[in-house]
Amino acid sequence: MSIPIVNHSLKYNPSLDGLRGIAIALVMLFHIWPEYFSFGYIGVDIFFVLSGYLITQIIHTKLQKDTFSFREFYRNRIRRIFPAMIIVLLTTFFIGYLFLFPSELQQLGKHITSSAFFYQNFRLIDEVGYWDKAAQLKPLLHFWSLSIEEQFYVIWPFLIFILYRFRVNLFLSLLFIVLILFLLPFILDIHPFYHSLARFWELAFGGLLYAAFQQFSFRQLSQKLQWIVLLLFAISITLAFDNTAFNINRTLAIVVSTGLIIALISKDPYHKLFSSKPLVILGLISFPLYLWHYVFISYAHIFGLNVSHYGTTLIILSIGLSYLTYRYIELYSRRQQSYRFAAALFATVILIGLLGQYTYTHKGFPDRSFLHSNEAFKKQFIRTPPANQMGLSLITKVLGHKPRNNYVKATSDKTDKKFIAIIGDSHAHTSYPGFAKLAKEHGYEALLLANSSCPPYIDGAMGKNENELKECQEKIDDIYAVLHSNLQIEKIIFATRGSVYMYDIGYGIVDSGGKPLHYHFKNFFTQPDDYNQTDTFFKVLQKTFQTFENTANIDFYYLIENPELGFSPKNCMIRPFNLFPSTCRLSLKAYLKRAGNYRSHLLSMVKSYPNIHLLDPINLYCDDSYCYAVKNAKMLYADDDHHSIDGSVMQASYFERKIFR
After folding, report:
1. What distance in Å separates the CA atoms of residue 167 and residue 527, rounded to the nearest whole number?
2. Nearest to 201 by CA among 168, 178, 219
3. Span 462-518, pLDDT tens digits
4. Where do the structural domains in the chain lie, given as residue ranges?
5. Distance CA 567, CA 507 (A)
6. Distance between CA atoms of 128 and 112, rounded to whole angstroms?
7. Quick one: which H or E segment has residue 87?
8. Of 43, 225, 484, 576, which residue has the fewest beta carbons closer than 10 angstroms?
9. What pTM was estimated for this model as a whole?
10. Angle at the Cα of 274 (from 62 to 11), degrees rounded to 5?
11. CATH topology classification for 380-562+590-623+645-659
């Protein structure tokens, strides 16, 4: 492939483009095959250092020649960045307009605005972590780094200008600035990954590197120490293996080793490794390649495609489009000297940002004519109210005060009726409609008493802190006060999540992406050194079984948690044009890997308690290979783990014979 080279403000160094090629290759491989290239994210850190180095060199060199102009500097930045960005943002919007559901397009509109106006990094602070699986569903996630760079470019020229005008020693000044910026995250309460003030030091380090070249000679580095530099660079990369969170020490290692590499190749523009043609070509198209590749990867995730399987295709597509963008858009733009041309680009980006905001305020254009209705499925995503008047009236009569529980419902407020009580957490709430319908059919009334993330285990109050623990215990006390009252409760169905309390780890893209939820039992706060979440969970579960084993005249049923999907069931809906049909299923192997220990302990434990009846839904949801979110054309889930109304009714029907044997 022949590829022209744009005119540069500085003498062209192909090895620097080769370093860019390494950086973009690392990032792309990380995004496609993170299980194999877990270290690839450090490519962004390489870009930061390189950008800081080059931008400082451009500014300072022109200041020395008395040719620097702020007006020209920002015109050049606009010519360099805006054309490719405009094409990518418009294409991302167009694909989203055609294929995304309204809620997804609404979210994309918000991200188009923050990407166009260069504050995407701040937007993401409250939305998703960089390593979270949910990040894969955001096509413009990668604009976080571009936003940080552009914010840096707003400040940095003025700083270099002031230092030069006042004849301050550039190296010592930038050394002081880098140290201050490096320490800021330790002083301020800011996000260590996304916040600009937590990452500016990497770009500033690049500037410090240029200043060091001006003050000291590094000629011997290229002659005698290059193998040591290359080894240190390789070691800094290996330190990033299997990293799943921002680590300042590992980042410092890659930043410093990148600086040494730049020192090496700045004296050797035709370094045998870094000036190799494939790397230089990747480096030349690295900016559009960075913008394009993640858009396609993210959309592949959204459309349910196997990114690992299609990885090579995604790379070829991204490189091909990036070459065309560079060859026919970027080169053309960078040849234009007109300030009007730059102003037109600037205005176009403003309009794209406003288009994103318009898309967000209009809720993702739900009236697009080509959208499939999916009305039957959409109704299943609507959660029912947490309480009803019958339930509040009944429990107030029994307790003498308004209940403190999150979920309180009943089909009657008459205290002389016979009841089936559904207790637990939010899973009891979403299981209630089916069991309530079933209860009425068999001559019972139904009662729901449940709490959010606070299942009523004996001695099993949970919380993120001691205040939440106390509140949870009060809610549990209300439940047992009702169960021990004169109300005629003949059957109890205990419905709750399991694995999440057992491990304190979420599951899948929606449920915190495998992060700790920080809900702990009491002894976490009283005996933290001896605390084990799994052991405590089974102890309180056993106490609960012991209590209800000896409760006369009440049938007790413990409902094993339905499979956690790990993905949003909204992905099961039919997308426009039906080009990306979803299998909408979870492998049985994945389910058992997550819930196998929970299930085996339950099945073993219940053998000691003949009056405890397990309700096991595995055969309702799963066959020999997969567990399904849709069955008999009905959506069983309201989100990644809670039942829909249809799912609740189907589950209750499945257990009818066992409950009313």
Report:
1. 60
2. 178
3. 999 999 999 999 999 999 999 999 999 999 999 999 999 999 888 876 665 567 888
4. 20-361, 380-562+590-623+645-659
5. 9
6. 16
7. helix 70-99
8. 484
9. 0.79
10. 20
11. Rossmann fold (3.40.50)
